[in-house]
Specification:
By secondary structure, the protein is α/β, with parallel strands linked by helices. It has helices spanning 16-25, 33-43, 45-54, 66-75, 77-104, 136-144, 151-160, 164-170, 181-195; strands at residues 4-9, 30-32, 59-60, 63-64, 109-113, 128-133, 173-176. The strands form 2 sheets. It has a 5-stranded parallel sheet, sandwiched between helices. The protein has a two-stranded antiparallel ribbon with strand order 3-4.
Length: 215
């Protein structure tokens, strides 16, 4: 069976991390784009030097203050675009390495957790896309419970991202995390079964599968 690449995405505070963990617990390798960005800003000296040239105020003694960086780039769209131009090629390269390694290791599904999957056109390398969603009230509560999050910052993040509604329209699968963990886990197992070409259990709650071909 040919390995399937599954893009996993969703707007801020929708539950992507828990869904990604559920796929990992089923034995599927998961690439985390946010973790890759953190690693680049922490350990990659070339990236840090380039960031310092574009946004010098966020680097002190070779260390990027990520909280300050986030605050600055969300307030200045030009700097956000500059940061994305620095980081995205490195993240794309890491994605390619991840997919090749997963295929070499005999994985049935390789999951790519990428918040801006559609916005960066990373869905083009995916065989299917699962969008993680939840009611707006749940999303807002989860987001504002995060340290350092404010209403203004949340609005800026949502403005930058494709709307949840539009993401769901483009999805092959929709995972609803607003009905509890058990419901979410059942949906993840069903997606895994479908992509691994196994028959999902009859009592599955359903994933709103679209059945679209992406190639």
């Amino acid at each position: 069976m040919k390995m399937k690449v599954l893009g996993l995405t969703g707007s801020v505070a929708m539950g992507k991390t828990e869904a990604a963990k559920a796929f990992a617990d089923l034995g599927h390798p998961v690439f985390n784009a946010d973790a890759e960005v953190r690693q680049l800003l922490t350990d990659d000296r070339r990236v840090i030097r380039t960031v310092r040239k574009e946004i010098p105020d966020v680097v002190t003694d070779g260390v990027v203050d990520r909280a300050k960086l986030s605050e600055i780039v969300f307030a200045h769209p030009r700097l956000l675009k500059a940061l994305e131009a620095i980081l995205h090629p490195h993240v794309r390269a890491a994605e390619g390495l991840f997919i090749r390694a997963a295929r070499k290791n005999g994985a049935l599904i390789a999951v790519m957790e990428i918040p801006l999957l559609f916005e960066t056109h990373a869905d083009e390398v995916c065989d299917a896309v699962a969008v993680v969603t939840a009611p707006a009230s749940v999303q807002r509560r989860r987001a504002l419970d995060r340290p350092g999050m404010t209403v203004a910052k949340l609005r800026a993040m949502l403005k930058r991202q494709m709307s949840d509604r539009d993401k769901r329209k483009l999805a092959d699968f929709v995972i609803d995390t607003g009905q509890g963990k058990h419901h979410m886990l059942a949906q993840v197992r069903e997606i895994s079964d479908i992509l691994c070409e196994r028959t999902p259990p009859k009592d599955s709650p359903g994933t709103d599968a679209r059945g679209r071909s992406r190639h």
